[in-house]
Amino acid sequence: MRSLKLKKIFISEEVLDADLTKDILQRLPEVPREIITDSQRDFGEVSIKEGKSLLYITNFKGKFFKPCPGTSQDYLCCNYQIINEVTGCPMDCSYCILQSYLNARLLTVYANFDRIFSELDTFLLHNSRRIVRIGTGELSDSLALEEITGLSTKLISYFKTKENVLFEIKTKTAHVDFLPAYAPPASNVVVAWSLNPSQLIKNIEFKSDSLARRLRAAKEIQAKGYKLAFHFDPIINHPQWQQNYQTLIGQLFEVIDPNRIVWLSLGGLRFPPPLKAIISERFPQSALIRDEQIIGSDQKLRYFKPLRLKLFKFIYSEIRFYAPDVFVYFCMESKDVWEKVMGFSPQSTNHLDYLFARSLYERFPEMNFRKPHLAEYLNLQSKHRHVDQIKL
Amino acid sequence: MKFKDYHLHQTPIDHFSENHEFDINSYHHFEQLKKAIKTIGILCPVMALQNRGALIIIDGFKRYKIARETGLKTIPAILFPEGTSLKEAIRIRYFDLKSSSTDLNILQKIDLYKLLIKYQSSTPELKNWLETLNLPRDPKTLTSLRLISDWPLQARQYIHQYHASFQNIRFLLGVPKDLISLLFEMANLLSIRWIELSEIYHLLNEIALNTGANIREILNHPEVVALFSQEKVNHKQKVMALKELLHNWRYPLLSDYRHKFNLLLKELSLPDNFFVWYDKNFERAGLTIQLKINNQKQFDLALSELTKPLTISKFRELINLL
Q1: With bands split at pLDDT 50, 70 and 90, how would you rate the model's confidence at A383?
Q2: CB B274 within 8 A of CB B255
Q3: What ranges make up the beta strands (E) of A49-93?
Q4: Of B251, B321, B322, which is closest to A292 when you measure between CB atoms?
Q5: Would the pLDDT of B280 be above 80?
Q6: Predicted local distance difference test score (pLDDT) of residue A326
Q7: What is the mean predicted confidence (pLDDT) over A379-390?
Q8: CA torsion, points B112, B118, B120, B122, in degrees to nearest 10?
């Protein structure tokens, strides 16, 4: 990723004295800044591109910690939990859902982020009987703003003493120098990369780090004792896709030990229909909008199933060639897709959550995870799982 | 005859000036009205403003046009008293004739905007009055209405014919005028409803984007032309065939798959009381077989049909494709 070049920092007057604000301003002494009041919060027409060079430090009124939003009954979700510590991303992937998802187009950092820790404490207290997976990187890249916020470092410090938890950082950068070395192999911090063939990264994941840099960073992280994960998401149909994904998977396993990978995900390209117009306007040459897509049950555009199956079957068999035991899952796919590609399907979201836990328990005995029991997972009531829904 | 302060006169047609400012609503049921006027004459008087000796039609331009075309010498007209302001005349036309401004259709709104734009600087009173109609005033809508007001005749005919609202046709905003003519000409010719027109335009647009051809070229493609000129095929069938053809061009993989699936289904040669439903986008797995059985004999036949080895193997193939 190219180094972060900010043109201006807007600071809500209410966060002027916050520690995070002070830290950021100290790290960016050269960048012009403007203090704004509540009534000045409307930034008017800021383009997506402009927004990537403007930083806004403010307080967040909602919950930092939420269940991952699975948006359809027809597709299986996995009970993953997400932390939204930052919104907006300086990278510019042409398919990025944030282009149509976020109201505020500025890179936004929340100075009252420390509130997350009490939210997490409550959640972990009420979910001690399961192995939980929590991650950042939903509304931003986990590490893209790390050099100025240090938020991932804070979260790592918090999670490393917690039991039955895996904390995942998801990135497309190679900015891992700051991560401290662990006493391998008992790290419960997972560093994950989203991967695509190098040709695609170059053509559609603008301002992100190249495949070679990502893989070098992954190798470095492996040596530091962290666990790893990789997300083949979004998988993109393109000429020579078979050859390109085959090469990619070969490159991955040339440098990474499958035994250090906690999970691998597969997900086809999908996005809400309004994003199509945005892609068409911002990246008129992009082939992403020209492919054959249908509206799925989650109201998102996605490749039609026979095409997805073709892509998934090939990539899954390539992965299995190198990593027969790694837990591979689909992000938001139907049971029949699981069945047709992997030969089995989780029966429900809770069942998939259990399968994750069982794999972690069996593959990483050194972590001393609590043994998962299917009945406990199946009986999980979603309304009791989350911090904002627990009556204390 | 005196009606309030207005006078009803059988007025010589030559006394009216050719002012097209109020030439709106002119194509809705035009032919039907023409037929009626030819038979029984004009029953409902037009309304006209007396302005420096000339008569400007405020309401009834369609009747006036038909009278001209059919050679009538006079037409009944309610004449506003000399000195009635344009503002008052418009108020009567749009306000008194309608119970509220929400009754105005998109063309009437557009024409009001045109008047507003034309007269607002010279007649602040008119501007104020137009504002009381609570028409949308946001710049986006205003710009859109201005664009639509420039659309050609075919579009105005279509809007009237199908009572299309602004929301219905907004997908065509920004489309060049010549293409608008072509699309509405096609829509008028084949009686294409706006929902279908939107689907067709969407497909045309995507094909153009993918192939680099322009929409006019696509519509002039020999396959499309052949489809339009088919005889003994009604409008509805032509529209369906056009949609299918465009869909095949835009989604060749999906279309091939559908074709393959339908061929297999056809090979099953199921009796008429069997109905098979499946997701045509192939997103949802499984299919539904519906059976209509009226008696024991039909039930036995259906059962034997379903248990035939060939039927079973074909159904397996179909299910595999889903």
Answers
A1: very low
A2: no
A3: 54-58, 65-67, 81-83, 86-87, 92-93
A4: B251
A5: yes
A6: 97
A7: 52
A8: -140
